[in-house]
Amino acid sequence: MAQKTQQLGLLIDFENLLASLDSESNTSFIPELLATLEHRFGKVAYRKAFADWSNAKLRKAASELQRHGVQMQHVVRGHNKTLIDSVLALQAMHTLALYPDLTGLVLASGDADYLALVMQLKNHGMTIIGVGADGNANSSWNHLCDEYLVCNTSKTSPAKAAPPAAGPEKNAMTASLKELVPVNGILISDLEAQIKEAQPNFNPESFHCHSLLEFLQSLGNQFKIANTEDGIIISSQAGRNASPYTLQELQSFSFVDYMQATRWYIIDGNIRDRVLHNIYALFEENGRVLTNDELHNLVDPDHIVEERPWYGTIFSLVYGACLWENPDDSSIPLPRRRLSLFRTVKSEEEFLIRYYTSLFHKAYTERPGLTAQMCSELMHPDDVEAHIPLYQQVLEELSRRH
User: Angle at CA 307, nearest 5°, toward 349 and 275?
Assistant: First the structure.
């Protein structure tokens, strides 16, 4: 078994790995993999993913990788199916020479054969950790690595048994955790203490998990897991659908109830307008950088806006390319992450269009009857007609994207 190392390098054959997972659109394995590696083996100091990034299917994954400080190298695969294998192998040897402090390399792929590379790296004294979607994908590759991790997948493999299907008990525990975990995060040790008080009978082994961390990882993307200097921090997924409802149930909701179940935003239109205006005004000064906490205190010093609507707003601004979140801060708590104005934002009007495009993106894909009138009535009920042109531009932008 690999000993816990101080410095790891991570190289990902991303298209190959993603294609071997059960759901190619599920990128939740990225933060889970990083958290598991740092918890079990050591700091992942160097991170790089290889793919043909012109592939539109990888846009969501690219954003997720960027958020977690993973460099992305563009490789035009074309008809050469082994080109990325060769590029990754060359990068591995280059990394070995360039970063002598690394004591281990993590090679993540689907079904590629890196046996020769692994043998060469081990001859240099490197610890090798393999990552794939199936523990049986390449038995020789599996056998030669010091450790082999299986990404979350519904397949059952000898390397890691599939978690049991979510039942009433697991759903109830998940709901309880959502009440205990704040948006800005909590140390896993503190969370364990709170769980003992709130759910004294909870035992991860009842769900085929060895620890609370493993149980949280088994919940997919319900929670964010970050390894920081202070320890492992668990936080809720700000801005995402944190409700226990299925898509079918959500579609039966009124538009108002649907939005409140799937998005965290400032409901009062006047307060929202003021907050968005003040955020833009603060960052309009070229090159200004503020932490999330600093921004919150400047924009809303009395903290009229509660925690979830605030972080939901920031989430939508970041994912809507209104604000830029420094990728080096991806593993630290939300309040300390640095923000600045996204460099392509040229006006406050564009800033607002991008924000509402991000906010209504999910509704646009799941509620085909969405109209500018509906958006305006929800967001600005006191001045519907005046805001319809804004939401017409938002829907036009969503239409272009789809």
Answer: 25
Please tell me the predicted confidence (pLDDT) of residue 62.
84
Write the class of the CATH domain 7-150: alpha beta
pLDDT tens string 366-381: 888 899 999 999 999 9
C-alpha 235/C-alpha 307 separation (Å) is 12
Q: What pLDDT score was predicted for residue 357?
A: 94
Low-confidence ranges of the chain (pLDDT < 50): 136-137, 153-166, 238-242
Q: How long, in residues, is the chain?
A: 402
Give the closest residue to 135 by CA, choosing from 159, 154, 117.
Answer: 159
Give tens-digit pLDDT for 111-136.
Answer: 666 777 887 887 777 888 888 876 54
Q: Are 39 and 4 in contact (CB under 8 A)?
A: no
Distance CA(112)–CA(234), nearest Å, equals 33
CATH architecture assignment, domain 168-236? 2-Layer Sandwich (3.30)
Instruction: Please tell us whether the domain made up of 247-401 is placed in CATH 1.20.120.1790.
Output: yes
Q: Is 232 strand, coil or helix?
A: strand
| Residue ranges in 124-245 assigned as alpha helix (H) | 139-144, 168-180, 188-198, 212-217
Burial letters 131-159, b for 16+ CB under 10 A, else e: bbbbbebbeebbebbbbbbbbbbeeebeb
* Domain layout of the chain by residue ranges: 7-150, 168-236, 247-401
Contact 27/57 with Cβ under 8 angstroms? no
